[in-house]
## 1
Amino acid sequence: MTLILSKSDVMKLLDMKDCIGAVEKAFSEMSNGTAILPLRTVIKPEGGLSLYMPAYLRQSGALACKVVTVYKDNPSKFGLPTTIGKVLLQSPETGDVTCIMDGGFLTAVRTGAASGVATRYLARNEKNMTAGVFGAGVQAKMQLWAMNEVRDLKRAFVYDISSEAMEKFISEMTVKLKMEVRKAASPEEILDCDIICTATSSAVPLFDGSKLREGTHINGIGSHTPNARELDSETIKRSLLVGDSLEACINEAGDIMIPLSENDITKEHFYAELGDIVSGKKPGRTNERQITLFKSNGLAIQDAATAQIVYLKAVETGIGTRVEI
């Protein structure tokens, strides 16, 4: 019997704190060689894009594949979202598919969780810190949720080109996190924060990196194509650069690829993969004045680890529908 979990089921089961713990362990497994992470397979059917992202975490016993499709005409032609995701979880012992679950909320939370792990190891750890978020969409909300889980935040600021989106962000996150959330008057106001996150769809840099304060930690989330970047070369040059994957950073992330191509940095500027810091192979922040940067591209190990904890909770609580396939 295969367990089917809807989006609402996953939302009931998945908590950010638990997800951060699972993703942290997944990065450690990646560093220690107990994770298998094949390259993402991309197929381009007529009218869309289909991505297949498999991973296996040997220690955690998590074997999964996430299928993500992007069809721009879905909303107008079929009344469906542009992006659709599902995760198939398998038993490592038998290979059978034990669970099929919606991947939308799961992807959003696991992306935030990666930044939560990075913030835990790279941001300064003080009382009453401030966080600033560029962007006010779903992922921006997940980022603030994750940062609040690992640091003592007294206040957060949000900046977005849409005033309506900012108001919605403030309304939701003030209630959810029980903290003060304010609208930033300008991008420069975000730069006064201790922790900064970029979670937008911008293809051009969001701020001048020369204006960053010493001691700032940055989570770069939004841009994930070679020709788009949220962070300028000055930000990259001034930062201790940590990525989820070196390979992804130098082959997929415009934030890194563009300064590399313009000879503003070399590959040696890349300090470490997050897993090497989690596993203790390299230290994270070494002084309070460092500017630290985590560049996230999104890895299938995050999906596998998160799907595993969702499934185990579903079995424990009796949530979901079992079907014979």
Note: The chain has two domains: 2-107+301-323, 114-298.
## 2
Amino acid sequence: MSSHIYCDGLHRRDFLRIGGLAGVGLSLAQYLQIAEAGQVGPSKAKAAIFVRLSGGPSHLDTFDMKPDAPASHRGEFREIATNAPGVRFCEHLPKLAKCADKFAVLRGVSHTLADHRLGTKYLTTGNRPLPSLEYPGFGAVVSRELSGPADLPTFVAVPGGEETTGYMGVEYGPLNTGQTPKPGRKMEIRGLSINGGITLADLDRRQNLLKKFDRAFDSLGNQDKLLVGLDRFTQRAFAMIRSPKVRTAFDLSQESSAITGMFGEESFPQSCLLAARLVETGVRFVTVSFTGWDTHDDNFTKLKMQQLPPLDAGLSGLFRALDAKGLLETTTVFVTGEFGRTPKVNARGGRDHYPRAMFCLMAGGGIRGGQVIGSSDKLGLGPEHTPITPDDVAATFYHTLGIDITKEYRTPSGRPVMIVRNGKAIEELVG
């Protein structure tokens, strides 16, 4: 899959630092060697799905329309009613309009970072970026705080994440699928699939040979913690390859027609379907990335033809499928870009970077759906009243998972750092 390039020439892969696994070339066994889960705390939701709308979607053309604004600001799209009283969305989101009772819309979310890289760091960590410290993303923290089944990865990114593991290190990074799923097909994940004519019997023979080798050098292994760790994680790698859970989770052909019928066949809706299956199987955190929102020119054509239809099909399918599976209350869904876009349409028919006003969506995990929290002013220029910060949204997200944002981690240098430095849970959502 080709990497998306933003307006500033940065590739999506450029967001991945040493704290990420994408492009590092780790084998499954190597990944498992550095992927131990942390301690389990009390939790409300048991898992989370984080949907990244990379590039910065326009708030005025989606979930925060301004039909009474001048034509220079309101754009070409009309509003439609939803099944939530008083809540209205863009006309090109009809499926989401029919299930608006299942999620909450945050309007007037505001910050000051109009750069893709910095905005992404802020919205994926809940901490305003500092030059002296790399904060861990949501997936890394959840991987550390919530353990999952031994034969499943704790954190999966579809097709790959932009979240950094920061000072926590690569051991809490994602297992990247490297691709998006196809309708009705099993995904062949590198390191999780058996190819080249190798059978489970072949794997068993190899595993038995390794056990004999380990026994022959047992005294040496017991003296070397690294060797002991390698053996332990190699065994877990075998367990994952053999696991019926893994084979089932990544096989969309195993899903019922009642559920698959809720999703479109494009890459993003199918990725949302996969996310629901992974959570159902026991994966704790799934990131789904959807690029293409950097609409500096021809904004309305791109949104109408390319972006909004799959967004509508994917998110509506995700909310409905989780609800049908009985998983919506135990799965927090968080949808965000890195900023909004300028209220005034530019000379190229596009909208530019605009962090002063943006939207986020939240659902599940005790979130009260069918409501709008916060507001922007009449032109969408900024918050109408008290702004909602990315810190507040992050605090709310962690609250649904029972994770205490005041908990301190230690950096490699021994510096104590709270999970989220500022921000508090939004009471209207979780109170």
Note: The CA atoms of residues 80 and 91 lie 5 Å apart.
## 3
Amino acid sequence: MDENNYFIVNRETGKLELHFEKSTYDELPDEQKAEIKSNFLWGRKSGCWISRAKVPNLYAARRCAEHIGLADAGQTGERLSFAEQMERKQARAERRADRYEARADAAEKHGEQLQAPIEKMHGDIAFFTQPIVNTSAGRAFGRRREKMFAAWERGFDEFRKSEYWQERAEIARRTAAGKELQDKGFIQRRIKERESSIRKLGKREKEYEGYLTAIEKGETPRDGYGWEVKLTPEQIRAQIDADLDRLEALLDELGYYQEALAALGGVEFSRDTLSAGDMLIISRYQEPVRFLRGGPKNFTYEFTQPHMRLADGTPMRGQAAYAEIVRRADEETALTPEEFAASLAD
């Protein structure tokens, strides 16, 4: 392959790009073309194949590029902050919602057009009940009526299509509005995920540093299970650099979610502020639950409703994060749907 055939990681988008000439693509076997289409999408504006996945999940995309024989051109661009990435995501969702709503409106109008001929015949009982006479005029009338009824049925398909696009538009609107960032439970789960990933990367970095130290001493590096590590020092250093880059991104994401949680008032409850038997309203249920015991970040609760019991009569139990607690509640209190929605909005 020449310099016109290569793959590169775009740090701004976090995706891997395939750059090669059309003649190169045309010469590829069908199996490799299928592999490209399963891992990449064609970017009309950029004029290259763009991976479906993004950092750090580029293993399959990179392997596909290597199978083709493209040269590794490294990286390009600068990584956006996580806040900037979220702004772009919301802007894309807004544009996507506009497109979906336009498709929903178009499908609804098309459905109305398809059903209009039958709608105009309402009240004309003879049109619907007249038998088909075996004459040229009668057969023509029958064919015309059958086409009108077929169009009527296709109209329902268009209405269902309109509902589908409207639902997609509503989902995109929620993303564009950042509704998830109003949910403390959602934010807390994202924080826990980032903290877990940061700990794992820190542990792996120490392991790789140990491999380098062993090699420098002339020893054979081994992993935690005692297996020989067959990576070269260059490969180990490259992995350490990649992990450090990922660690920087994770710390940025962690800070973003921590700020979002602080903006909502932080986590109000903890095991130090709750006692066994306290009645709580949590975001995932309308009815109160009873607090049983708590850990550092999660707590165990049980349901109080008679229908939420096991066969032996024991109340069903569950676990939730403290961030999911909306407020305290009395055991006799049962919120109406309106009160529950208002408590979440607060």
Note: The chain has nine helices and ten strands.
## 4
Amino acid sequence: MTERILIVDDEPDIRDVIRDILMDENYSVEQSANATEAREMMAAFNPDLVLLDIWMPDIDGITLLKEWVSQGIDKPIIMISGHGTVETAVEAIRNGAYDFLEKPLSTAKMLVTIERAFQNTRLVKENKELRDRIEPLSNLIGSSQAMTLLREQVQRIAPTESRVLISGEPGTGKRVVARCIHQSSSRKKGPMVEFNLAGVSETMLPVQLFGLEDGENIQIGRLEQAQGGTLYLDEITDLSLATQSVLENVLEQKQFMREGGSIFLDIDARIISSTSRDIEKEVSERRFREALFYFLDVVPLKVPSLRDRTEDIPELVTFYTNWMVKNENLNYSRFSTAALNLMRNYSWPGNIRELRNVVQRLLIMNSSDEIGLEETQNALGESQPLQQKIVTSQAVKDLELRQAREIFEREYFIHQLNKTNSNIAETARNVGMERTHLYRKLKALDIDPKQLNDT
């Protein structure tokens, strides 16, 4: 698709020269001589990029820039001026301009700047599409008490500008929580830029985070890409102490400078960070700066592990099954009650990430309409029959009463059913219950006697 560029300048000769250059580069071009025409052309032409002169007879370019930014127009806007100063350039960038060019315009520099702006726009769009494909979850799934509480916390936090520190084991969905906060915030129309700090070399991290200026070559960093939106710093505790110090100073001053640059840029991004480690322990053992911790930890959020909300597993399995059938062209198969029970009783060291992989593997390998116990055991590496893993007495004592009672009752009734080879009448006599009451209890505990018998 041909990219559209709007030129806003009160000098017709300059407009015509720029138009001819851009049309030779196969851009679609329109012109405006003042702010009034520019407003009309913004609506009618819907440009992908704007070249905006600062000095115009009716309304100056900076005022028009502020107006468009306040309206949520997120096109890259490149300011141009024949009376440019460092202060003018800084003001333009601070107010949302993508870049600043001085007159007389260098054709080469103008074209490079325009192409770089389009590349950045495409990169942000591609990153969003890739994230949506890799991580289909756009909300927090689960009806458990833990997830209900987490959703309530997210809804309270999202409308604020507060910094958030998300903690939780690997694979629990910390990134999903960050995205939910962004999508429910006033910044939802802005970019959501995710930066995983794990494994990034200390020498390259400043460039990737703050950007780089090398002559006419400018590389935009994650912090700049997140302007007007949210920057999500994943695995914040992987930063070295030296880099932590730099980040702490930048965030407190609310300004940063590209590597090799000379202009400070204001930060207009909400910071959400996350860690899989015990960050308070990292602070106490002086591996993480205390001042940075308190700066980031304005609002702490803890994402529960999957083993702490196993009642959500059937809902998660259903979601991932439907998503993969729709988006990955896999054949639909339902999970048997025995398979779901086994999954509920599995420890899930890899949390939701592991569950998703298991569901995908089973859908790929299964050739029937139903995924049963044996296939699920193989996928999980399990060899034991369907039964609740034995929990130590002390572990049970540390749980809430409702959870401890459910674990005991499941173990108790599965044991009784196994003794009678799932004979309901005999089991009812042994446990001193009416058969109808026993059926209701087994259904409430999600125990299927037929599946037990099959094992």
Note: The mean pLDDT is 85.
